[in-house]
Amino acid sequence: MTRKNSNLQRWVTGLVLAGALLAVLICGSLEVLTVLIVLVIVGGVWEYNRIVFGPGFLKEKTVGIIFSLLIPGAFYLGDFQMLAAAVAFMLMAVFIIFLWRVNERTLDIMTVAKVVLGVVYISFLTSHFILLRKLEEGIYWIILVLVIAIIGDTVALYVGKSLGKRKLIPVVSPGKTVEGTIGLIVGATLSACIYGFFFLPGISVVHFVIIGFAGSIIGQLGDLCESAIKRHYGRKDASSLLPGHGGLLDRLDSLIFVAPFAYYYRVFVIG
Question: I want to staple 244 with a disulfide (CB 3.0 to 4.6 A). Which of 9, 21, 118, 228 is the partner?
Answer without folding.
Answer: 9
